[in-house]
Specification:
Length: 140
């Protein structure tokens, strides 16, 4: 099995809260950054999606906080799309410190929306693969 897609992130001081650790909402920003970076690595830009009248949507997100992050920590944020049947897909993500410690696990359910009809499209994995110059980035 190949390694999951990942992006490096450095925790910035302005992202921390009064206790000195990464604000809980910023974990979602890191996860979102990794998802968009994966799309870009597949050759899909946000403008490409808009031009086709489609856009990814988040339907559900669960975060399990495992170890605190503080300003200056270097982390890797992984991203793996899991395709199934129907209109939705799952995304598994891990935020891991440089020493290998898991800081957070994120599980999400998403879909691909027709922006005109405001409805989820069927077979989102197939549709994204058709837009991609490198669909292998999705693990398909």
């Amino acid at each position: 099995m190949s390694e999951p897609f990942s992006v490096p992130v450095t925790v910035r001081g302005y992202e921390t809260d009064t206790q000195g650790h990464l604000n809980q909402a910023v974990y979602l920003n890191y996860a979102e950054h990794a998802r968009w970076a994966l799309l870009q690595s597949a050759g899909i830009r946000q403008a490409d999606l808009v031009a086709r009248g489609v856009g990814p949507v988040a339907l559900e997100t669960t975060i399990r906080f495992r170890s605190e992050l503080v300003a200056g920590d270097e982390v890797e944020v992984t991203c793996v799309f899991e395709w199934g049947e129907g209109k939705t897909f799952r995304i598994g993500q891990v935020i891991r410190k440089a020493d290998g410690t898991v800081a957070a696990e994120i599980e999400a359910v998403g879909g691909l929306m027709d922006l005109g009809a405001r409805k989820l499209l069927t077979e989102p994995g197939k549709r994204l693969a058709e837009l991609a110059s490198d669909p292998a980035a999705f693990g398909q």
